[in-house]
Amino acid sequence: MHSRLVKKAGISLAVSLAALICALAVTTTQAQTAESPLEFERGFPTAVTTDNVYDATDLRRAIEAYKFFFGTMQSEAVMQQMLSNGAVINEVGHVMATSPLQQFAAANADTPYALTTVDLELSGPMVVEIPKGPYIGFVDDHNMRWVLDMGIIGPDKGKGGKHLILPPDYEGEVPSGYYVGRSQTRFVVVFVRIMPIGGDVAKAIKASEDIKIYPLSKSGQPVKHRYIDVSARRLTLPILTWEHNIEYWKQLHAVIQKETAPASFRPTLGILAQLGIKKGMPFNPDARTQGILEQAGKIANAEMRVSSYAKRKPQYIAWKGRSWEWLLVQLISPETQDFGPKEYLDLTVNDEYFYIGYGTSAAIGKRGVGMNDRSDR
Questions:
Q1: pTM of the complete model beyond 0.90
Q2: Residue 353: how many CB atoms within 10 A of its CB?
């Protein structure tokens, strides 16, 4: 019997294989059309299916790219806001007692803010001297990734110190006597909150004059950097006019042209290239692409809003039966400089945090009485 089966199988092999291929093709087609409007003829996509798939692919990738770079665009908006209101890169910053006059992401109305935009490509390593006192400061790169903490929350623990910001891929000598942070981007923002002791806001604003910012190459020379008080100015935040239309992508394209990109961004930069945003190339989306990008912006922005204000992880709830939530459950890792352990980046936390606020610090989200003394570092 066995030999007859083998012989029979050998005779009908071609017929059996042909039948199997046809059956697989039919099954695949049925599976595709049962789950979606995609149609395949003999396993090959129809013209309509091809168009639908490419539209869906581009939309899906644009949604994720929008969210991934939202921190970048928040930072860009803050820098543009400053530079259009009297600030000068590396030379003049803003200090303000915030009020409804200023559009600023999650600012506290009881604490003056001092901000400076730094271009490390122009300055080289930049020094930030924070005096002893009630200063809470940090440095973020253009992607809102953490670089270093300063003042009460930093390694100087409020006793004052010199902080050194190194440019990307800096290979020069690093002098001793500094708290050092390395940026992954050309542009950074130096961000300092000045506590108004006894409620004296005017004194806190004046205390910004004691913050010294200068290139390492000009150590020992008179410090030219200064802050201008914009407390009485109406400051608009540009991203509020970009976030739901094609301007978001145009602004992102402009950032890509001038900025340094971390190696870890290669996959997402590949998505941008597929969407027509590539360094060294103009951005001229056709009507189809523009429509997809604008649709992606609306969907992604809505997803980030939901993720920020309707968190689905129960550990965010501070007290059972109450609506109070912790700001973060995943903290900044000093090793990776972002939200997540060494193994991965927590994209959900990125969405939640970058949407509601500006500025990241390794001290954000720390819980416990007396955390400001930073004795855990």
A1: no
A2: 28
- The pair of structure tokens assigned to 158 is 């409020």
For residues 73 and 63, what is the distance between their CA atoms, to the nearest angstrom? 14
Distance CA 136, CA 153 (A): 6
What is the three-state SS of the chain?
CHHHHHHHHHHCHHHHHHHHHHHHHHHHHHHHHHHCCCCEECCEECHHHHHHHHHHHHHHHHHHHHHHCHHHHHHHHHHHHHHCCCCECCCEEEEECCCCCECCCCCCCCCCEEEEEEEHHHHCCEEEEECCCCEEEEEEECCCCEEEEEECCCCCCCCCEEEEEECCCCCCCCCCCCEEEECCCCEEEEEEEECCHHHCHHHHHHHHHHCEEEEHHHCCCCCCCEEEECCCCCECCCHHHHCCCCHHHHHHHHHHHHCCCCHHHHHHHHHHHHCCCCCCCCCCCCHHHHHHHHHHHHHHHHHHHHHHHCCCCHHHECCCCCCCECCCCCCEECCCCEECCCCCCCHHHHHHHHHHCCCCCCCCCCCCCCHHHCCCC
Dihedral sign computed on CA atoms, order 262, 266, 270, 271: negative
Radius of gyration of the chain (CA): 27
The token pair at 160 is: 């004052």
Question: Strands of 187-194's sheet, edge to edge?
Answer: 146-151, 135-141, 187-194, 113-119, 92-96, 226-229
Phi–psi pair at 339, nearest 5 degrees: -80, 100
Q: pLDDT per residue over 150-203, tens digit each? A: 999 999 999 999 999 999 999 999 999 999 999 999 999 999 999 999 999 999
Are the C-beta atoms of 200 and 171 separated by less than 8 Å?
no
Compute the distance between CA of residue 230 and CA of residue 99 in angstroms, rounded to an integer.
11
Give yes or no for a contact between 213 and 116, defined as CB atoms under 8 angstroms apart: yes
List pLDDT tens digits, range 8-51.
334 343 444 444 434 434 444 444 444 567 899 999 999 999 99
Number of CB atoms found within 10 A of residue 140's CB: 26
Instruction: Please give the structure tokens belonging to residue 314.
Output: 């129960």
How far CA 257 is from CA of 122, 164, 261, 282, in Å, comes to 16, 26, 10, 9
